Amino acid sequence: MFRKIIVILIVASISFHSIVPLSIKLHNTSYPQLGSLELTTKNQSDAELPLFKNFPELQKKLPHVTLGNFPTPIKKLENLEKMIGAKSLYFKDDGVSSKPVGGNKIRKLEFLFGHALTHGATTVITSGDVGSNHALATISCAKKLGLRGVSALTPQLNTKYLHRNILMTKYLGGEILYRDSDEKKYSAVLSLCKELHEREGK
Predict the structure, then answer these.
(1) 136, 10 Cβ separation under 8 angstroms
(2) How far is 95 from 105, CA to CA, in rounded Å?
(3) Domains along the chain?
(4) Any idea which residues carry the catalytic annotation?
(5) I need a labelling partner for 54 at 20 to 30 A (CA). Which of 95, 148, 193, 198 fits?
């Protein structure tokens, strides 16, 4: 059932102190302050993935689509080493893994979207709190692949990155299902899935 719909859910708990109602008018709006967004990704064959190099049989079983620029760089933090007295200190910069939205979430989304494409999905539904980075990354990847992206969101603490993520979601063409509780949110997701199933007949 629902062969044309892929639902990607990450469930997280959060303490609510001041919640944010989604009252910003976002439809039919342009966001020149965001500038032009790069959606290109360098070509990388599945055979180049370390996972498939070490476990070649997995390549036959795990659908995969390239959405990021990997491998990402490892940088030596020489100044911080001196400050804290560390001998060797490095960090892996997954922030440059993809444009306009990067981060380590792109790695798992390459497999989730690979699965979605294999099953002929036309719509991808993700879930989280309003400022969810996972939800934004999912919408960004859906945009790259020409899929409909829907974010089912619930309230969370008001932060600057929250507003940035909402603006980016709309700028990338993502649709938002906003509900004030997880119960209502998942009910809305189920209703959307049923609607799509009935309309597409698959």
Answers:
(1) no
(2) 10
(3) 5-11+45-68+101-200 (3.40.50.1100)
(4) 132
(5) 95
